[in-house]
Amino acid sequence: MINKDMTDKMLLNPDLTNITSNTRQQQLEHWLQQVFANQEFTLDSLPGDASARQYHRIQFSDNSNSLDSKGTDAARYIVMDSADEQDALQQFINVAKLMSPAINVPELIAQDVEQGFLVLQDFGTLEFAHLLIDASPTQVNDYYQLAMQTLVALQNVPVETARVQHQLPDYDTALLTREMDLFSEWFIPYIEVSLDKALWDNLKSALIAEILVQPQVIVHRDYHSRNLMQDQAEPSRLGVIDFQDAVIGAYSYDLVSLVRDAYVEWPESQVSCWIHDFWQLQQQQASLATSSSVEQLESDVNVMGVQRHLKVLGIFIRLSERDGKNRYLADIPKVMRDLMFELEWLGAYGSDSIQQAVLPFNIWLIDTVLPAYQRKFSQQYI
After folding, report:
1. Are residues 175 and 296 located together in one domain of the fold?
2. Kind plus residue range of the DSSP H or E element containing 41
3. 20 to 30 A from 304, CA-CA: which of 49, 79, 254, 313?
4. How far is CA 52 from CA 47, 49, 88, 325, 344, in A?
5. Residues 6+ apart with CB under 8 A from 47
6. Where does 105-165 show beta strands of DSSP type E?
7. Where are the alpha helices (DSSP H) in 49-124?
8. DSSP string computed for 4-22
9. Domain boundary at 65, 99, 121, which?
10. 3-class secondary structure, 84
């Protein structure tokens, strides 16, 4: 197993990194040879995401293996290598068991938590984002309706089941604060401005106070176009991935992740229509926790959106500065536009307590943060 001391040595010695990587690959292949006895296979490494996990697609040369039960093309699976993340791997398995009766998550084919290996059902290569390319407006709407129906099905999972039987944590004050502080700890230093701590603390407190009283459901926490797949076995269903960070929290979080995705942009008029559609879908579920009106849902979405987009701005800078994943910098302007819209909306239509926190924060953001942000990013991304 790769520990912290070894990781530090790898940073100082690239040759050690290569040796460790080769050893890890050998461990993985040896385990797979045990799982798929007498089967010849090849591994194709897949592009990395924002995590430290590695993914591979396994292809069998004789096209005859069949371990799963969903009618999937049994010649291919996804292999997850989570070397330093045993806790996250166990949580992935735990959340998959919670969600699988309600929504389409990958079937677990084989696992070795101690080594950090999983074999999963392969949904294929078509992400939700890919489906939207060249789609007609009617097709786009149909895809989003399907994504929202899937989300409603997830939100129908009883909170007590998640809490008692699967020990899902609460999206509480500490976690909400820690996430927003990624903005102050990474984004603000990156653009080289000084934080107005009083305005910042007031904003966080006002947002959290409203978020915590929103109806509570199972929250995927990253429900967007890159974590939804067209299931190659059942094209009419969306496969849901990357759910291991699920929590019990506000009903608006996953909706804002979907309709104000960091990677896909739609006019706010369309976003508002989808928010209204989602409320109608919720009303059809008598047992579902929801708001008393679509106006309240829209307000809740904008409150939650500010929290999420502050977090994402910090995460994207951290991915670049700490992890060398610079490709996320190109997505920051979209996130900033979403944040500005939400703050302006709340400044005009939010509750009195939200307006008191948002209005002075907006002045500081416009006068201080935006000019520094524009200088830093220049015309490369904005």
Report:
1. yes
2. strand 41-45
3. 49
4. 11, 8, 11, 11, 36
5. none
6. 108-112, 117-121
7. 86-99
8. HHHHHHHHH-HHHHHHHHH
9. 121
10. coil
Looking at the structure, do residues 344 and 267 belong to the same domain, yes or no? yes
The SS3 call for residue 103 is coil
Dihedral over Cα of 232, 40, 84, 190: its sign: negative
Amino acid residing at 28: L
Stated pTM of the model = 0.88
Domain extent, residue 152, equals 128-381
DSSP-derived secondary structure letter, 107 = P
Please tell me whether residues 210 and 148 are part of one structural domain.
Answer: yes
Instruction: Identify whether the C-beta of residue 182 lies closer than 8 Å to the C-beta of residue 314.
Output: yes
- Residue 16, pLDDT > 60, answer no
pLDDT digits (tens, 9 = 90+) for 245-302: 999 999 999 999 999 999 999 999 999 999 999 999 999 987 888 999 999 999 999 9
Side-chain-side CA neighbours of residue 46 (13 Å): 19
Q: Give the DSSP per-residue string, 43-67.
A: EEEPPP-SSS-EEEEEEETTS----
Shared domain check, 53 and 137: no
Residue 196 dihedral angles phi and psi, to the nearest 5°:
-85, 100
Rg of the chain (C-alpha set): 22
Q: Which two tokens stand for residue 260?
A: 């104000």
How many helical (H) and strand (E) elements, i.e. helices and strands, does the chain have?
15, 9
How does pLDDT run across 332-350, given as a tens digit for each residue?
999 999 999 999 999 999 9
**Gap between the Cα atoms of 240 and 60, Å rounded:** 24
CA dihedral 275, 276, 280, 285 (to 10 degrees): 30
Q: Is residue 53 very low, low, confident or very high in pLDDT (cuts 50, 70, 90)?
A: confident
- Which structure tokens are listed for 28? 């993985």
Tell the burial category of 62 from Cβ atoms under 10 Å away from its Cβ (0-12, 13-18, 19+): exposed
Q: Which amino acid is at 171?
A: Y
Least-confidence region, from 5-9, 35-39, 46-50:
5-9
CA 195 to chain centre: 27
Distance CA 377, CA 382 (A): 7
Number of independent structural domains in the chain: 2
Residue 257 amino acid letter: S
Residues 354, 373 contacting (CB under 8 angstroms): no
Please determine, for residue 9, whether its predicted confidence score (pLDDT) is greater than 50.
no
